Structures are given as structure tokens and as C-alpha cells.
């Protein structure tokens, strides 16, 4: 069969169409696996896990960039802790967090509790430090934290390093 002009034009358009489709979907995060959609915590009790997720969302809220919810920081912490052996400070931390009233507080109350726990003089400041440390690690090693927030490109070569254009960072020669 002899190809027609129309058939040749259609064949020529296929690579351009495929490039456009690839470009459209390149920056989209993959769908959540089913395990994450119906996640059941392994280490934490359900109410403690819900409180942990709320705490992490206060620490790294969602704004124009993804937050702890999108990075699934609570899921990561639960996953890591379920395989830990030996004494674990997280059980005592969740008991202390419950004692502050965090579990039963509304959103504004939870924010106030986190702000008070952030004060170094608070008796349960170590709870804040523990959750903050693990949340920061979970967030900045996740796709939303590393790629979407920090714009990490990985193994990329920078041919030049542009100079800083902030006047306050320039050295003054006397």
C-alpha cells in the first residue's frame, strides 16, 4: 500500500505529540499507592497518629508549596518506628502530648499548644524537639520536600555560579 500525504503528516506529528504529553506530566507527582490511601498506623494508636499528623501539619503547613501532609511525614515516622527495637522515646512523647490536651484540642488550641511546647522553658519541650526533628527529616527527604519545595535537581552540573546580588552580602573594602 502506498502511503498518502495525509498518512505521512500524521506519522510526522506523533513525536511532537508525545513530547508535549511527556512535558505535561513530567512535574506531576505519581498517584498515591493504595497502601498510603488506606494507611493504618503500625506503631501509633489511631488517635496518636492523628495527633502526630496534626502536629506535623502545624510545623510544616501547606501554602504555595507542599507541606507535611503532602509529604506524608506522619506515615514515614510511623513506618520507621514500627521496625525500631529497644527503648523508644515516642511512647512517652505521645503520653506527654496527650497530657497537654493536644489530642482533644481544636485547630487553634493545637497551634497554641505547639507554640508553648516550642518554648525551651516548657517541661515537655523535648516532645516538640523530637517531633520537629523527625518531621524535618521526613519532609526534606520526601519528593514534595526535596524536589517540589527545594527544587533539587540531582546530579546536575552548574557551569557557572552567579554572584549574589544582595548588597548587604557584599564585602566592604576600606
Structure notes:
The chain is mostly helical. The chain has a domain at 40-150. It contains nine helices and no strands. It has helices at 5-26, 34-37, 46-59, 68-71, 73-82, 89-99, 107-117, 125-140, 143-149.
Class inferred from helices and paired strands = mainly alpha
Q: What level of helicity do the residues show?
A: 55-70%
Radius of gyration: 24 Å
Number of helices: 9
Taking the sheet with the most strands, its summary is: none
Mean pLDDT across the residues is 84
Strand content: under 5%
**Which runs of at least 5 residues are low in confidence (pLDDT < 50)?**
none
Order of helices and strands: HHHHHHHHH
User: Which outline best applies?
Assistant: flat
Number of strands: 0
Distance between the termini: 83 Å
Give short descriptive properties of this protein:
single chain, 174 residues, mainly alpha, 57% helix, 0% strand, flat
Task: Give the helix/strand layout.
Elements: H1 5-26, H2 34-37, H3 46-59, H4 68-71, H5 73-82, H6 89-99, H7 107-117, H8 125-140, H9 143-149
Helix pairs in contact: 3-5, 3-7, 5-8
